[in-house]
Hints:
The structure holds two protein chains of two kinds.
Chain A (H helix, E strand, L loop, with lengths): L1 H22 L10 H13 L2 H33 L1 H14 L7 H8 L4 H25 L3 H9 L4 H39 L4 H10 L3 H29 L10
Helix pairs in contact in A: 2-10, 3-4, 3-6, 3-8, 3-9, 5-6, 6-8, 8-9, 8-10, 9-10
Chain B lengths: L5 H15 L11 H14 L2 H32 L1 H14 L8 H8 L3 H25 L3 H9 L4 H38 L5 H10 L3 H29 L10
Amino acid sequence: MKGSRRLVSPLLLLAAWEWASAAGVVREAFFPRPSTILVHLRRLAMDGTLWSHTAATLTRVGWAFAAAAVLGVAIGLAMGLSRRLRDGLDPVFAVIYPIPSVLFLPLVSFLVPAGELATVITSAVTSFFLVAFSTTHGVRQIDRLVVEAAIHYGARGRRLFTAVLLPGALPHVFTGLRLGLGFALIVAVAVEIVAASRGLGALLWLSWQVLKVEDMYAIFFVIAAIGAALSYGLAAVRARLLPWVQDVATR
Amino acid sequence: MRPGLVVPLALLGLWEAAARLAIVSPRYFPPPTAVGAGLVSHFVEGDLGAETLTTLARLAAAFALAAVTGVPLGLALGRIRALREAIDPYIAFLFPVPKIALLPFLLILLGVGEPAFVLTGAISAFFQITISTLAGVQTMDPRLLEVGRNYGAEGWRLFRRIILPAALPSIFTGLRLGLGLALVTIVAVEFVTAKSGLGHLVYRHWQMLSTVEMYGAFALVGALGLALTRGLGALQRRMLAWQEEPGIV
């Protein structure tokens, strides 16, 4: 079975790590044994700390992604359809997009009261651009022949949109959504490290500052698991809802 | 004037007017001309040039490290099935992780300093480069391999003449995306911990509310990102003129 074979190498690594740390080959202070990390993970989960911080992070990611997805798809579609809009916005987006999203935090904090809203908006910035870019590209790569054929057969306005343009652009829209979801998490964690007192990023940073190394590993594991779950979760949703749609990018 | 510049210039003009007429608070949103003048004077007599160089040096080190390790690993993963099965679970698990979350670990292992900052940037580029390279090898047309073999190419020659050229566009895309990611991560690391670099400038001036300098550093990061990604994109179109670029983002 393919799935179980993939587990061989990680399990071997964990066993080797456990042994090396116990035998003193690597310093246990820096590389605590996986079994110790598991104990700490369980303790964090039992006393509720982990849940409240995870909930804070997931809520931020959820709102940021929702905002980025709605705005990104809408503006992306509009830019795909209207040449003038594209010509106007492209240069603006091209300059803003490569700026690391964390740097938007100061700017956003001038616009809205610092706190939850500023974190969410900052986390949504890069995500929005990824969704908008992919959607624009998705609309533009639709075969002109298909669009013209649809128009000749009388598809206009709403019908053209729902029957031709949206389905045609969907694979790219989904790729943008998947990348955007990943980036919403990345930026949310980064902002939490910088400026928040709650959330997994903040908890990770705090554990570093007081040198709770085992807790750091446990929290890192949770963040990684959320990242993997979001990424593969969205891919699974796509496979279920739109089985004919291929994901276009290479992960 | 290029038509592409109309909207950005109009936006800047609007901002300028709003700040001058105090429709928005000039304390928080200083007029773009003031930011521009501040940028120039800080370059001439201030530390802006040195800070930019610091960021660029970190970026160059991180990118070089990631390229030198990521491309060979991606090629090897694409060709050697057993290796791919052994390594793939880690890549699949670690790729979606925010790489800045690795920073605390590197800080304990290496201490607070350049190696930790550079390595965090390198790791984020490394994954992208490895994955793009791997995809380039895996998605190559199998007929090319067969043609090569039929003409007697084996081993190193097959690799050098067939596999590498076929994977080159993907490798380039990986390098371009990796460079962008390394910049993002390094600036974020500077913002969080480092006491130098453009990211730190934005943070420091945010804390001191010296907004003219803050926006200046902010704009500089944007210009840097734009120049780097555009530059590498142009290089790619020039060097690989025979091939269309795979992938979109």
